[in-house]
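Hi everyone, sorry if this is the wrong subforum. Our group has a chain we'd like a structural model of before ordering constructs, and none of us has done structure prediction before. Sequence below.
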Amino acid sequence: MAASSPQWAQTATWRLALSDEAATAMLAIELAHWLRPGDLVTLSGELGAGKTAFARALIRSLTGDADLEVPSPTFTLMQIYDATDFPIVHADFYRIRAPSELDELGWDEASEGALVLVEWPERAAGRLEADRLDVRLALDPAQDAGFRTATLTGTGRFASRLDIARAIHNVLAQSGFADAERQFMQGDASTRAYEKLVKPDGTTAVLMIAPPRADGPPIRFGKSYGTLAHLAENIRPYVAIDKGLRAEGFSAPEIYAADLDVGIAVIEDFGNAGVTEAGAIIPERYAESVALLARLHHLSLPDTLPIDEENTYRIPPYDVDALSIETELLVDWYAPHVAKASLTSGAKASFVNLWRHALREVVSGPQTWTLRDFHSPNILWLAERQGSARVGLIDFQDCVLGHPAYDVVSLLQDARVDVPPEVELKLLGHYAQLRRIADATFDMAAFARAYAVLGAQRATKILGIFARLDKRDHKPQYLVHLPRIEENLAKDLAHPLLSGLKGWYETHLPQILKRGA
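Answer:
Right subforum, don't worry. Here is the predicted structure as tokens:
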């Protein structure tokens, strides 16, 4: 697929043999997982090739009705069905003599906002979009009557989606989960998607769909935000860090099979028991999570890890540029959200300079694997295991080499759940005690300074992220957490080391300090 080609010229092809009608139906069910309203699927092949049977399996899967009557639309020309969230138009143009006849059918009105399946699409000439998925079925006289070959061609925006579908098919087969039922799992703020896989015998796994991240526009030094912040560009960092954590005895998911190029993996299912319950933390589980961090931070860890037998991954540093660019999310997204106006260029410049100065001691301090998203949504509880192995780690692809205080404050100043101040202090003391037992030279005073600085940095960043999720990504559900994050930020800014930054917030975003008063 040439990057320089116009979108409509991009194509991807997937060919596979279907041994019987059941295999043809299974392919339709696979495709149903990624089809959505506005998509066009054309069904090609000679008479009797199985186009209507394929459409029937697809429609039944999308409607959730395994017994739904789906007759051939050869004589009616068009049938309309209701899926869960959108209509499905199933058309057969075999009897169309001229594309103009579609107007008499009310084609444009019926197909708007629908998933459209068209048999004999060539009869419509130029009335159908070039941007489509074509499924061509063919008989083979040398094979049994139920045998088909299928050639799937994705054009335009379907090209990358077909590559993902093909990779999922292959990875499921490699992992032994080809026959598993696929159940959507609730997503979060990231662009990754997850599905729970359930085999007929009850065995489960998780399908992770994490295609390479598209790089954004350059914003500084000719680099994008993702590059400056050292965000994972593909699934390879996840695989490398996963292997590194497991090698040290931590509970990261076993990877059963993966496609590193497309970004697909089938991984161990850790279940859904977390470290919170009914919106409140479970203190003993938080204590074990703190103990895990103390153990991790005492280890001498490599900065380069194997991905596979031939390739390695070097963990990037959590340097001043990365930490600083994250704080700027506040001036770009949160400030306009609460003040309804943009800050002046002078205010922004002062903000950046103050933060870069505050971060100097942090980046020159001790360095360790900073998992970066070590907080309640990403920690699962594995009760059947022992010690810190009970803490299941699932989100670490953005791991960097940073100060150990970052993950501790990420957990104890959780953006999504209240950690009472007295509990935060107790758990912080628990961490310090474990560090001192392992290393008598552990400097708690320096750690406390870094804790305050990185707590303020992280709260600043998340305020910007959650405001961006609302404004840009239309996910307002994250705004409910802003008061908690503002309180944490105000608490961290009270540290004498951050007096200059506190003055900036008092001047330009005083509501944050009022929240923490």
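For your construct planning: The chain is about 40% helix and 20% strand. The CA atoms of residues 333 and 472 lie 9 Å apart.
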